[in-house]
Amino acid sequence: MSGRSHEEGLKDLTLLGNQGTQYSFEYAPEVLESVDSLHSNRDYFVKFNCPEFTSLCPITQQPDFATMYISYIPDKKIVESKSLKLYLFSFRNHGDFHEDCVNIIMNDLIKLLDPRYIEVWGKFTPRGGISIDPWCNYGRPGTKYEEMADYRLMNHDLYPEKIDNR
Predict the structure, then answer these.
(1) What are the positions of the active site (predicted)?
(2) Which end of the chain offers a freer environment for a tag, N or C, measured as fewer CB atoms within 10 Å?
C-alpha cells in the first residue's frame, strides 16, 4: 500500500491543507472531522498531547492553562488532527470548570468517532496555589473495553506522577 487514497476518507476533509482556515473563538464541536480507520481489524492506541490548551474560569473569566492528553482505541473512524487542534482552540474563550472541559472533550469525540475506548486527562497549571488534573474515560458498553475502562479508572492514579512545580 503506497498511502491512503482519496476514496478512503480524504475527500470529506475540509480543513487539512486549507490555507484559509478560520479559528473559532467560541466552543465549536462542529469543526471536528474524522476519516476512516484503515486498521479497524486490530486494537491500537492513538495519543494526542496538547500542551497549549486554554479555557476560562466560568466565574472569574481568568484563563486556565493545561496540557490535554487524549488517548483512544479507534474502531471505524479516527479524528483528523488539524480539526482536533481547531476544536481545542475553540475552548479559549469557553467558560467551564476543568472537570467539565475534559468530559465535554471526551463526549464530543465519542459522538464523532464511536471509539472502542477513550480517555482524556487535563493537567492544569496551578492557580491560587492548587492544580486540578481531571481524568475521565469510557469503554464501549458490553465489551472488553468497558472492563478496561473500569480497570483503568480504578487504577489510574496508583503511581502518582512526580510533581516538579510544573
Answers:
(1) 57, 64
(2) N
Separation CA 92–CA 17 (nearest Å): 23
Exposure of 4 in the CB half-sphere (CA atoms within 13 A): 10
The mean pLDDT of 42-59, rounded to a whole number, is 95
> What are the structural domain ranges in the chain?
29-155
| 52 labeled part of a ligand binding site | no
CATH number of 29-155: 3.30.1130.10
79 is in an annotated binding site: yes
| 102 carries a ligand binding annotation | no
**Catalytic site includes residue 57:** yes
Show Cβ contacts of residue 116 under 8 Å, excluding neighbours closer than 6 positions: 43, 72, 73, 74, 75, 139, 140, 143, 145
Element (H, E) at 55: strand 46-56
Q: What are the pLDDT digits (tens) for 84-94?
A: 999 999 999 99
